[in-house]
Amino acid sequence: MASYLKTTPTREGWFGDYGGAMLPPPLEPHFKEIREAYDRISKSAEFIRELRYIRKHFQGRPTPVSYLKNLSDLCGGAQIYAKREDLNHTGAHKLNHCMAEGLLARFMGKTKLMAETGAGQHGVALATAAAYFGMECEIHMGEIDIAKEAPNVTRMKLLGATVVPVSFGGRSLKEAVDSCFQSYISQADTALFAIGSVVGPHPFPMMVRNFQHVVGVEAREQFIEMTGELPDMVAACVGGGSNAMGMFSGFIDDDVALYGVEPLGTSSALGDHAATISFGEDGDIHGFRTLVLKDADGNPAPVHTVASGLDYPGVGPEHAHLHKTGRVSYTTADDKEALGAFFALSRHEGIIPALESAHAVAFAMREAKNHPGKSILINLSGRGDKDIDYVTQTFGFGETL
């Protein structure tokens, strides 16, 4: 039987009822060009060889899997492991697809990379790829996130990127995507819009998943080497969902329980969270069909989470599909749990996680006590350097949590 990854999505980019490409007519030929270019190079030995070289000699792959003994002892029950994407160059999983998108852009003859960013990790990764390939770079970022993630803004500028502040609407990730799409329309002949997650019109949900597949492949091999067996549970945070799809794709055909952890923010009330799968409904956003958090008028609703990279009222269409089929279970962690996990991992393991990744840590800490004799592998998708100023200035050092 053909594997899941070989048969999903369809040629038209549908993951069951979700996905597709709903584009304004001026962009249709450009996305067709991207699809055709990806089809040509994705199985090319030359492309694969250069991407492997970059991953090994520039990114520092493979990243390790770490056994979190101290955290496991603290929580009791299951043993907790982490795939250390925080040790990937630039500090998160985002570079895995950004370097590949840079190679794709070069193949297509583009001279510029552009994208949205929330927490800034995708922006930093794309600015890094642009510097590596000698291209221009334009990053759109909401004003709220610029204030929260100042270290990443500085990094983007040091790498030569132009950072475009987005001041309308909620001034966060959704608006950054809107702004970047608008800017891209007039530059599509010379630029590639390197979408930062498994979202957007086809082929990006498929492409980004496939470029992130390396995370799951490595983690599966490493875990078996360490323990002699597969993990019982695999978990990752989910906003748009690129780190989770990278991780899940390595285990999708295995008898392994998969868990996506969404941000519950401060409450389950609309506007207080960004848990799209948990509370959303079918809808269209940014050129694709998925689950969407909607307001009373049916428009994408305001969202909140302490983690800027999860601050999105939609979700990747493949996640919506995996939820509908039941292959992945989706749950939540709120701001307080994520912050508690942020401090716990820092103090008990010497690893400062990104606030996004801390949602997966929170899940593992919560579930460990309920699963004695089992193993939990999380994707530690990024490091928390970008978050330390915001966290300590806003919440201190965790004394009141």
UniProtKB/TrEMBL annotation:
GO MF annotation: an example: tryptophan synthase activity
Residue positions where N6-(pyridoxal phosphate)lysine is found in the record: K94
Classification via Pfam families: PALP (PF00291)
Any one cellular-component term (Gene Ontology): cytoplasm
Keyword Iron-sulfur: no
Catalytic activities: (1S,2R)-1-C-(indol-3-yl)glycerol 3-phosphate + L-serine = D-glyceraldehyde 3-phosphate + L-tryptophan + H2O
InterPro entries (alphabetical): Trp_synth_b_CS, Trp_synth_beta, Trp_synth_beta/beta-like, TrpB-like_PALP, TrpB-like_PALP_sf
Enzyme Commission code(s) on record: 4.2.1.20
Cofactor(s) listed: pyridoxal 5'-phosphate
Domain of life: Bacteria
Biological pathway: Amino-acid biosynthesis; L-tryptophan biosynthesis; L-tryptophan from chorismate: step 5/5
Limits of the Tryptophan synthase beta chain-like PALP domain: 60-382
Keywords attached to this entry: Amino-acid biosynthesis, Aromatic amino acid biosynthesis, Lyase, Pyridoxal phosphate, Tryptophan biosynthesis
Family: Belongs to the TrpB family.
Annotated function: The beta subunit is responsible for the synthesis of L-tryptophan from indole and L-serine.
Oligomer and partners: Tetramer of two alpha and two beta chains.
Entry-linked HAMAP family: Trp_synth_beta
Protein name per Swiss-Prot or TrEMBL: Tryptophan synthase beta chain
Lineage: Bacteria, Pseudomonadati, Pseudomonadota, Alphaproteobacteria, Rhodobacterales
